[in-house]
Amino acid sequence: MTATTNPRFALLSGLVLVVFKLHRLPVCVSDIAMKSSLQFYEGMPLPMRVIAPGRLATLREQAGLSKGELARRIGVSTRMVFFYEEGRHTPTPQRLQKMAEALRCDVEELTGVRRGEEGLVDLRFAAGLTLDQAVKLLRRTTVGRDLYLSAPRLSALEQGRPVLGRNWCDGDVVGRLPAALAKIYGVPVRMVVDAWMRTRPSEPAPLRPRQRPRKGASGSADAAWRSLNERQRVYLGEVLRDERMTETEMWMRRVHHLPVPRPAEWRKLPLALHAPARVVGYTRLQERLRSNGVHDPGAGATVHALERRGLLVTSTDVVHHPAAGEVTRVRVEMTKQGRAAARAGLGEAAERQPDMPLLSEWLWGVMARVAAAGPDGLDGDALSGRAPFYLGVGYKSRSAGRPSRGFIDEVPVLAADGSHIVGYRWKLTPVGLWHAAEYLAEYRQRYPRVDTTAVASLADEHS
C-alpha cells in the first residue's frame, strides 16, 4: 500500500492542513519541522517565547541588516522573517538564539523580558532548547526519571499549571529538579529557583537552604600557620582582626546610607607611613601590633616574609598628612590563603558562603532597608554601589557576571498632575517579597544583626 492510499496517512495530512488553515499560514517543510509549534497538551499550545511587537524590526535596522540578510544568517526564508516581525509566527529556541547572535543582542532584548523577570520558559529559550530537547537531557538525570518527565509535564510546569504524575507531590523529589534544570540551562541554581517562584507564585518555594556543617581548617591552611614564627603569627592575626573591624565599619556605613568604597579598596589596610612616628603617629594596625608586644611595627622583613608565602599583598600610595605633607603609605591586603591560615591559627571555622538560594548579609540588609522604607519606597539615590546589579530588575553587569535576582525595582513617581516623572523609588517586587517571606526564618538565624521588623510586617500583610 502506498503512502497516498494509506488511510492513516491521509487523516494525519488532513489534520495538518486544517491546523495551518486555521492559523492562515502556508504549509512548508520548514514550518512542519518546528515541532514545538505543532504540539498541544489538553487543547492548550505549548508555551512559546514571543518576540515583542516591533522590537525585532527595530533591532534589525539598528544592526544594518535587511530581512534577507537576517534570514540567511538564521537559516529561514525572507518571508518567515516578515512573519516574525508581524508577530504571526514565533521562532524556535535555536533560531531565537541565532537571531540574537546575528543582531548582537541578548535574547531578552528580543522578547522584552528584563533581567530579573525571567520565568522558567525564558530560561529554556535562552538556552536554545525545545521542550523535547530539554526533556531528553532531564531524562538522563535521576530526578528526571523519578518524576517521569515528559514534554507535557515540563510544559505544565512552565505555564504554572498543576503537574500530575508520580512523585510530583513529593517536595523532596521536586526540590532536586531546580539543580537539574540549572545544569542543562547553564545558569546558577538560584536563577532557576527565582524563575520557578515567578512562574508558580501560589506554591511554596521549591528549594530550602540546607544546613551545612561548618568545616574546620584545611590541612594546607593549618600547615601554613605552623610554618610561621611567633612574630609572623602576630602580624597575620592582627591583620585579620583589623580587616574584620573595617568590614564592620563598612556595614555600618551602608546601614546609615553613607557611601561605601569597593571591597577591593577598603580591604587594603593602612599599615605604615614613611615618616617619623613622632610626627605622623601610628596607624590603627600598628597600634594593634604594639599592644601585642611588637614594638617596632612596620613594613619590614616580617611583612615581606608573609608576602613571599602568598599570605599578604603589599602596595603603596601617596597621602597627605597635616603635619608631614605628602608621605608614602604602605598598605597590606590579606589573600585567600592568608585569611584561611589566620583562621586556622585562631581555631576558627572556614568562611561560609550563603546557603542556596539565600543572599549575602549585605544584600539581605539592602532588602531590609527597602522594606523599611514602607509603601512609598526607598529614594532612588539611596542605593549606591553594586546592590542594584545583584537585586534590581533590568540591571545587567558584565556579560559573564552574576545575573540580577529581580527582588527590587525602580518605580517611577509621577508629578501630582501626572504630566511627568519627578523621581524613582526602590520597592520590593512580588518575587522579592515572596523570597523574603519564604526564607525569613533562615535569614534571622544567619544574620541576627539585620533588623527584619519591616520585612516580617510586609510578609504578614501579603500572606
From TrEMBL:
PROSITE patterns with a match to the protein in the record: HTH_CROC1
All copies of domain HTH cro/C1-type, residue ranges: 56-110
TM annotation in the entry: none
Region feature Disordered, mapped onto this chain: 201-223
CDD domains given in the database record: HTH_XRE
SMART domains: HTH_XRE
Protein name: Helix-turn-helix domain-containing protein
Organism: Streptomyces phaeoluteigriseus
Lineage: Bacteria, Bacillati, Actinomycetota, Actinomycetes, Kitasatosporales
